[in-house]
Amino acid sequence: MIHSLRAVGIVILSFSLLACDHGKDTAKISADADAFALNERDYFQNRGVGVMAFHDTAPESHQRGVIIVMHGTRIASNGDLRLEPTPGQWSPTPKVLSRHVDREAGEIRTRLAYPDENQHHTGFNPLHYPDLELTHDVRMRAEGNAIKVSVDLDKPLKLILERRVKYWRPFSEGQIRIERQ
């Protein structure tokens, strides 16, 4: 049953990296040229692709959560656990409690919680948080040319929230081109 699970889900991000060398700024960061690895700036890098975990936490600017940058262009952002299937600009976002980079395990773990009392009913366009306390971890780990994203809940969701809570990862319009063969 869904409501008894602690893990909401796992997302695997993988990229085709053929011909992705992007000049001197993308120094080889691992022995395996086709593998993601943590760089000195605490994000995952593989040639021209960088995958960041909660480096920027500005909820109003749509630059938070899991961010993917390819050759200097942000192609995806806002990858985090949200309370609506398709959240809008002024939808509630979780508060970042902590962020830990474990170089030995090759993992970034971010602890988050709803509600964010600093955003609830404050400012020009106040966010409204439902009556909910939800603490969770977003873990990212490199697995070859892919990044594994796991979301772990501290406790099961209430039945009423099962279908509303989603891991949301929008891509920037016009930045992804799909070629059909």
Automatic annotation (TrEMBL):
Alphabetic keyword roster: Signal
Secretion signal span: 1-19
Protein name as annotated: Uncharacterized protein
Lineage: Bacteria, Pseudomonadati, Pseudomonadota, Gammaproteobacteria, Cellvibrionales
